[in-house]
Design brief:
about 300 residues; alpha+beta; D-amino Acid Aminotransferase, Chain A, domain 1; 10 helices; globular; disordered N terminus
Length: about 300
Amino acid sequence: MLRRGLAGVSETAADREVARRVRIALATCVRWPALSQSDACLARVLEARGHRVIAAPWNGPFAPFADAAAVVIRSCWDYHDTPDRYRDWLGRLDPARTFNPPDVIAWNLAKTHVLDLAQRGARIPRTIEAAAEPAAVANALRTLGIDDGVMKPLIGASGFGVERVRRGEEADALMRARAQKPLDRVLVQEFVDEIEAGEQAGVFFDGVFSHGLRRTAAPGEFRINTQYGGRMEAMPIAPGVLEQMRAVLRLVPERVVYARVDGVVRSGEFVLMEVEVNEPALGLDLAQGAAERFADALLRCCRV
């Protein structure tokens, strides 16, 4: 005898109906396994359209990703602790049903992607790669012609290991950075005074602008990450700045379903700080209709 479910529908029939719904896996991480407030908005929209949505940590069992019709890389925020393992995981994913594609995510992992984009025409702060040694960092500052800079791990997230560095204080800056994460090589960049007004970020879905965000640091802090008291809010993007963001996005080596283009405005010109196509916070909860626009782009690209 079949057991009866709600409205007299047999559980077997209900199971068959659920099985017909496309399963979409939103990749998180073991340290933060639940969906963020922003990504929960996307999940609700997808579920309202009849799709099964699961959150699964990238560094957990692989089965949820092997079985999913679409894998969306979202809050894999601990990837920088074990980057080789993360790259291996990316290599196991099917590029045809992973968003964004594993190859472009691998390109985006190292902060040297800004140097690549600069060679393609993007405007960035004065930047150079260096060994994580006091003499090498000092030489980088001299080469850039600056006394005050910012030192960033080549692979990092959430501001871990990011430190301000001044001439003569390179060893101290490296010691502070190494207290947070191991360092081999770093990006040395001029300190951007415009950061005091906050970064402007443009969020794009399948190349189309969705909404703008402002990311601001806490008083007395230059790092805009939430662990340092940074906050994010919706903001309009001026047409000229938006066009420059679009131009940067066109330099990314592959088509992406989602991207956040971060930078500051200096004398009316957009200066790129970073392009995020791996696991950026997208502020879907801050902009009306943003989750729907993301869902539209995702479902169009994965054809489900």
